[in-house]
């Protein structure tokens, strides 16, 4: 059994990871912006009162991160930085490509894994096993993924991958492993109804990958099915 904290746990891939980790016997701190509205998480908390703890957490608000970190005394073995946003698939002239939407996407997807990891580093340091950080990125952030759209999102996930690599170097001396992961094209609010896989299939693959993460694999970008991806 391990202790994990996941951001954006109230829907989509984050909710599926939370549910599966609880079924597998882990203790989950399920972070979300609005616990009162998180009906699915409340149901999981009722099913697993000892092992599911819903915690308020906005990943772009440092004070919220610090409050959440202050409310947790336990060690964390795994931190999953899953919360993310997208602003559409348009090209240069698309209306959604505003300075404001770039700021939201870049701060949420790049800066928040950094600030979230920093907030929960004291808990990871207390892990009695291999402490791990998993950043949910996207193949759309790979420099080898050629496409002509989604500028902010692609740049944000390239940045998230870079944050993972830099964290892997800085945290190596503390024996904390860091990986970035593509969850597949997943049928969620973000992925839409035509995605290749369900959130449950993605979560199942990702949990196997998190289990495999070691200091030898730290800094790598990995698909949910185990394939190594190009940054
Ligand atoms: N679906 C795909 O095909 C796909 C593919 C590649 C990568 N990904 C990545 O996988 C991750 C999860 O995606 P998803 O498909 O599950 O998306 P989703 O269904 O849109 O869910 C996004 C989650 O992130 C949370 N979130 C956003 N901003 C937040 C903030 N500031 N603080 C806390 N939580 C915040 C949302 O909370 P609220 O409910 O409060 O908005 C929600 O729980 C994202 O990082 C995404 O980029 C998804």
Features:
eight-stranded mixed beta sheet, 231 residues, 16% strand, 40% helix, single chain, Rossmann fold, binds NADP nicotinamide-adenine-dinucleotide phosphate, alpha/beta, globular
Average pLDDT metric: 97
| CATH-defined superfamily | NAD(P)-binding Rossmann-like Domain
Distance between the termini: 31 Å
Figure out the total of helices: 6
CATH architecture assignment? 3-Layer(aba) Sandwich
Query: Compounds present?
Result: NADP nicotinamide-adenine-dinucleotide phosphate
pLDDT under 50 segments (min length 5)?
A: none
Order of helices and strands: EHEHEHEHEHEHEE
Lateral strand order in the biggest sheet: 3-2-1-4-5-6-7-8
Question: How many β-strand runs?
Answer: 8
Q: Proportion of β residues?
A: 15-25%
Structural class: alpha/beta
Radius of gyration: 16 Å
Count up the domains. Answer: 1
CATH class: Alpha Beta
CATH topology: Rossmann fold
The percent of residues in helical segments reads 40-55%
Largest sheet: 8 strands, mixed
Description:
The chain is an alpha/beta fold and 231 residues long. The chain has one domain: NAD(P)-binding Rossmann-like Domain (Rossmann fold, 3-Layer(aba) Sandwich). The protein contains six helices and eight strands, in the order E-H-E-H-E-H-E-H-E-H-E-H-E-E. Strands 3-2-1-4-5-6-7-8 form an eight-stranded mixed β-sheet, with helices on both faces. Helix 1 packs across helix 6 and helix 3 packs parallel to helix 4. The protein is globular and about 50 Å long. 46% of the residues are buried. The mean pLDDT is 97. The structure holds NADP nicotinamide-adenine-dinucleotide phosphate.
